[in-house]
Amino acid sequence: MRITVGHLREQRQDAVSVKFREFMRVYSKQSDVLICFFEGYTDNAYYSSRIDPVIRNEKQYISCGGKQRVLGLQRTIKRHGFYKKAKVAFFVDKDFDEPLHNDLRATIYETPVYSIENFYVSIEAFDRIISNVFKINEFSENENKAKIYKICTDLYKHTQSDFHEKTKLLNQFVIVLRRKKNLNKSSYSFNSLKLNELVKIQIDSVEQNYDLKKLNQYYPDAKDVTTDDISNTLFPFDKKFSEIFRGKFEIEFLKRFLLILKEQLCAKDSRYFPCKKKVSFQILNPNFECSNDQLLYDLSQWADTPDCLMDFLSQIKSRYFS
């Protein structure tokens, strides 16, 4: 059967209906709780650890399986007058989409960066990760340990910058293809773009193994993205690439860099570090593949927390519990 836009819309509506029934069950039993709607399960770890200290009232969290489902639920609940007193809050990623209208922002939080994954990859977040997880401290009394800290941060800055340069075309391609929306596929997904097939990440450099022709080959049912399309795709000058590039690529880079960094730190003879440093972060084990979801869960407390999120949570608290 040929998959059409209508079929995809029906599937989305069915999924919204399932989550709406879950919301109704929660509300029927606990009408005074704050019900928070997230895109996915990995969002729970990040947001709940920031919601709980601000809003101590009872809460229920619902993972919806995507941005459009969260927004669909917001519209569905709003249409039903019976639920006008429901205490609800919605959390979505900005992605490469246009910003939400201001009239939606009373109950919907939209990330100022591409997605919550981008909160994990800033130099500030990296600093917290190596300080608290790798136990590498900038102010250590041990001279070698202080040197290791500086080497780690210098390597991260350098390699992340190289990664962004080598994945600029990739991100532009994703933007153009999303705007075209002309795929005749059962799922409009970029998961087929495997980062490890497109770039080779090393501790001090990134090798680009793709061009525009190769990217187009991943989507044979779509009209080719052209060099003119790419040239006309510009990024904001006031934003860092770590904030606006696709979050799944960014978190994959962080995972790969941390794994290589751990290997180098634990090596007897490292070409980068003056001495061996034991790191016991178990999920970074070269013998098995750590999922991005697991990394997001385990590092959630060290990710960035933007002021706009705290402002939104304060407003939700005042709206429902003051």
Relevant terms:
alpha/beta; single chain; 322 residues; two-stranded antiparallel ribbon; 13 helices; four-stranded parallel sheet
Give a structural overview:
The structure is a single chain. The protein is of the alpha/beta class and 322 residues long. Helix 1 crosses helix 3 (67-79), helix 2 packs parallel to helix 12 (292-299) and helix 4 runs antiparallel to helix 5. The protein is built from 13 helices and 6 strands. The strands form 2 sheets. Strands 2-1-3-4 form a 4-stranded parallel β-sheet, with helices on both faces. It has a two-stranded antiparallel sheet with strand order 5-6. The longest helix is centred in the N-terminal third of the chain and has 25 residues, at 5-29. 50% of the residues lie in helices and 8% in strands. Helix 2 links the parallel strand 1 (34-38) and strand 2 (59-63).
Mean pLDDT: 89
- What percent strand? 5-15%
Enumerate the strands of the largest sheet in spatial order, edge to edge or round the barrel: 2-1-3-4
Coarse morphology: globular
Q: How many helix segments?
A: 13
Radius of gyration: 22 Å
Distance between the termini: 53 Å
Q: Decide which structural class fits the backbone.
A: alpha/beta
Order of helices and strands: HEHEHEEHHHHEEHHHHHH
The largest sheet is: 4 strands, parallel
Percentage of residues in helical conformation: 40-55%
Number of E strands: 6
Low-confidence stretches: 1-12
